[in-house]
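FAQ

Q: What does a record look like?
A: Structure on top, sequence underneath. For example:
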């Protein structure tokens, strides 16, 4: 019993761990909320694109010796704006445009860094995260930016969901689809930037997408998904930090491995959509006698209901 108590309390005796827990939870909550919109939209690639598109901004900041996070944020926002503009041509799918700009941005970053010898060590924390080395100022910055992100996401939640479910219906209803695209891309970009210190540029996509994917497997309701995703992300971040402290291993990598383990469990055991659950239903005594009026699995998202509610309130 004492061993369990020591395991739970020992990390909190250190100030650097207290900061790490605070940032991990805040990044997890914000990533879960924004990631839920990304998964609903079916544009998980944007998270990877943004995490790479901040690279040229960081490279420029490194060469000219100013704040790396600020440089990355500016580059990410510019790339997100470019993706939003070029995606308006519906002949090209959104993931195609994202792929073009993500590759271009990363290539630009490599070219810029090639002019600055000896850069690799200086950018290690950007690439792999440095959550155990953050300062009080970093905690305040993440808290303020995270709160702003959550408020914006709450303010445009219904509109973002409507665009995600049916873009043309949203446009016909008078919603500013292009502006909402920019809002979502901006939310993703800032979320990626504030999460860089937690898990790093390479692993940030996992914190943004995987908890939302877990929630998508666990529930058919968007509101519940918006609650489950941040809860899973925050719990995984805290668990990863505990493991990092106990076994003296990389914190960012362990956070990602924990949340990936959660995804595997959800994929197998989710009440309605898990692999083992579906097999158990098919093997049950009544597996072949479902009434046509009572399908075994309801539709995953009540799209028509949401769109109807939106039209009646606008």
């Amino acid at each position: 019993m004492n061993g369990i108590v020591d395991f739970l309390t020992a990390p909190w005796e250190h100030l650097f761990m207290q900061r790490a827990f605070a940032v991990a939870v805040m990044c997890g909550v914000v990533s879960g909320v924004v990631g839920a919109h990304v998964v609903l939209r079916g544009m998980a690639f944007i998270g990877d694109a943004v995490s790479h598109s901040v690279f040229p901004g960081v490279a420029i900041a490194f060469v000219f010796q100013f704040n790396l996070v600020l440089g990355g944020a500016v580059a990410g926002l510019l790339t997100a704006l470019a993706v939003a503009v070029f995606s308006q041509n519906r002949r090209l799918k959104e993931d195609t445009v994202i792929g073009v700009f993500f590759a271009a941005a990363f290539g630009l970053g490599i070219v810029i860094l090639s002019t600055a010898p000896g850069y690799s060590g200086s950018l290690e924390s950007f690439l792999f995260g440095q959550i155990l080395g953050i300062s009080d100022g970093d905690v305040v910055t993440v808290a303020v930016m995270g709160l702003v992100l959550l408020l914006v996401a709450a303010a445009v939640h219904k509109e973002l969901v409507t665009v995600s479910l049916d873009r043309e219906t949203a446009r016909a209803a008078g919603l500013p689809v292009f502006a909402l695209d920019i809002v979502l891309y901006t939310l993703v970009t800032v979320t990626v930037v504030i999460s860089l210190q937690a898990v790093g540029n390479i692993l940030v996509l996992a914190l943004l997408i995987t908890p939302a994917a877990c929630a998508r497997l666990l529930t058919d309701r968007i509101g519940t998904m918006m609650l489950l995703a941040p809860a899973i992300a925050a719990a995984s971040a805290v668990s990863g930090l505990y493991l990092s402290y106990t076994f003296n291993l990389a914190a960012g990598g362990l956070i990602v491995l924990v949340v990936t383990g959660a995804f595997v469990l959800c994929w197998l055991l989710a009440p309605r959509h898990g692999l083992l659950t579906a097999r158990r239903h098919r093997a049950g005594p009544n597996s072949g006698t479902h009434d046509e009026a009572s399908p075994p699995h309801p539709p995953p998202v009540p799209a028509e209901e949401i769109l109807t509610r939106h039209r009646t309130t606008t």
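Q: Is there anything notable about this one?
A: Confidence is low (pLDDT under 50) at residues 288-295.
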